[in-house]
Amino acid sequence: xxxxxxESEDKMEANDxxxxxxxxxxxxxxxxxxxxxxxxGPWTSAEDAILVDYVEKHGEGNWNAVQKHSGLFRCGKSCxxxxxxxxxxxxxxxxFTPDEERRIIELHAKMxxxxxxxxxxxxxRTDNEIKNFWNTRIxxxxxxxxxxxxxxxxxxxxxxxxxxxxxxxxxxxxxxxPEFLPTNNLEIPSVEFKxxxxxxxxxxSFVNIPAGNFLSAGLSPxxxxxxxxSKMHPAKRxxxxxxxLPGFGAxxxxxxxxxxxxxxxxxxxxxxxxxxxxxxxxxxxxxHALINGNSSSLPISWAMKLELPSxxxxxxxxxxxxxxxxLPSLESVDTLIxxxxxxxxxxxxxxxxxxxxxxxxxxxxxxxxxxxxxxCGQTPNTDAPANGADSSSQLHDxSQLHDxxxxxxxxxxxxxxxxxxxxxxxxxxxxxxxLDEPQLMKTLPVKQEKPDWVSMTNGNETDxxxxxxxxxxxxxxxDSNWFGLSADYGKDYFILRDAxxxxxxxxxx
DNA sequence: AATATCTCCAACCGCAGGATA
DNA sequence: GTATCCTGCGGTTGGAGATAT
Length: 509
Hints:
The chain is mainly α and about 500 residues long. The chain has 23 helices and four strands.
């Protein structure tokens, strides 16, 4: 397809063994599998010719038979891929036209990472092409600090879907629609935590904390670059995206548990996220980023994959999981959040390494505190950056304040002492249904979701536990030294702070 | 010119779902 | 009902070329 391919094939041509595939040749190349039966790696033109010939004679499909009948030493999968991506006669060659590019963006805004479906909408283009284009584009825009979707695409997608589908409206300069959540039209400049320093220097675990919660707070997908989700199994994540999209309901309870007070908020982060990631049944299938049922696989040091919400989350959907979106959407942003390697596993401490949320911070700050105090030399994160200690000290008090909470809930050293259910029960005023119960998905939205967003929107929720986030006061983040200002990441902090300030202003207005 | 880094993309991998035995 | 095979999908990787230092 590309020149590169041809070049590659030309190179391969010299070693082409297709007419007389010798085991010696194959194994020497190291690209044979199954004991030298199947070839891997770049296709040669001879192989292409064989495959084309085979398909012309036998038609597409039955790819596993290709090897048997054509003499190709390729697995059926490889044949299908080669045919679909390079040999199909109806394939367009060359780079995408501007129209195609725009179409891809539009489609992605609607569909998320549904490359095959997008390819179906773009004759002559393959899912692989589109995927590569998109990934490249994402990276480019991330670097440039640009929103992933242009404003017009956002609004178009928005309009196409539903008046209430507002999550995609992150365009700049757009007049906020008062119908929407006051937080949904906010554009936040792309902030890469990679450069922010928070995750690397202030606190490794930070990156995981506000991720879903920021999203759930209605920050636009354009701030996706700064919003970090846990990495779930890609296949499951995407497959689940095809299911209903109740929105960010899973994290709403988290927000509801916030208070202006950072310390309370920190606890809420902990408890809610514990629940979110550990209770896969609870997670709405649409909250791709959080539905990694395999939350236990979450390391504390991540190369995190960022999942964006679709443009289709509606206010109503957020308020009620009973309203799945017909067009699930998400996108993956290859935001790699490089964090210092965690030594939790080696530390011997119990650590909340699996949730990576604020509890991790608090736990680790506690550990750091203890390290300082006891000089035992064993810390949960022994190779944390120097200023990590400083930053953790910012959280120090919070962790102290919640020692009792942790102690009362199980393992005094680790928030993992909480079971999902216990955490949830402890921190949410939900009665009756256990999160461990399978029917949670059905029952929880009724009991949980409405108050979450309603309360956040109205900002007048006065739960007895005072753990609700008043979304009208997103400034709680600003006042909490959340980002641990330093010269290194001050700029990004202010960007984000301004954005949150704008959010607040909108809400107030 | 040499080296390092980045970009692009073809191909691979694992998984899930459907079909069939 | 279960096992197996086939196919398709989406994420990831590795290498070649391009660009920067």
